[in-house]
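Give me structure tokens for this 339-residue protein.
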Amino acid sequence: MMALSNQDSINNADRKLLSVVTPCYNESEVIGLFYKELVSVLHSLSGSSGKMDFEMIFVDDGSRDDTLRQLNRIAETDPAVRVYSLSRNFGHQIALTAGLDFAVGDAVVLMDADLQHPPASIPDLVEKWSEGYDVVAAVRNNTQRTSRFKDFTSNSFYSIFNFLSTTQIPRGAGDFCLLSRRVCTSLQNMPERHRFLRGMVSWTGYERALVPYECAKRAAGRSKYSWRKMIGLAMDAVFSFSAQPLRLALRLGLTMTVLGFVYLFWTLLAGLLNGNLVPGYASLIGVMITLGGFQLAFIGLIGEYLARVFEEVKGRPIYSIKQMPRESTVSTKSKASTA
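Here you go.
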């Protein structure tokens, strides 16, 4: 086994340690196959470089099937595997955050277990990292495996996000990426609860390289990202990285006010010049309903921002650990509580 213990890896300055963080939620149908492909690639990478060790960190995000049992069985036979289990389902972004908190590698790869993020692309990410890039983002270069509607919504999201936010994300870049140690440290210093990691990584401003990859179909099972979760992630992205919706509400409110004064002035002027007032009960009711709808929508928008502030100021840990390896301890920068 080419993998070393964490302490040995840290003490050996001549060798680099690569951490691979994988969140798992009800992935019992595919986790065994994913592990076999991943460990094969890592052994090949370690053997070819001769100067790289690796660790595999699996974060069980409150799975309801036997994913955790399978992971524990793998960890019993492979010392390079470390398994953490969250006390409940906290979500994909939080599970990735937990893995980042416990990864000790010089570089950390984030990837999913469904094999849509191919382990075979890891050497390409490592190669770019060895060239000096702190962030290496894997970008899908094929869309034939996704529906036109999903491709449309994905492109629309990136367009809207990049328009509203000063933080820019490459189109097609997801959470499959490699991060250097200093990028991971920067992420650990960000305490927010509503996390959009690909945006947070871009916000750090470190030099980034893009590596194309072929997005495969899921090897087994169904996607755990429902439309509700995808909409929630999109909302986290926009509300966490842009105040433009609030500014848009202000601009629209001012515009409606100006138009209202113009219409009122025109109505009074027409009444004075023609000697009769312009009747407009239907239009008046329509305008009132429209303005009322705008007001309610903007109150809800402000409420969403306030709710997020409320959740942040409570200062609760963003996840709770139910199980961790015996030799592991919670980092001083960890955002966890131990159950």
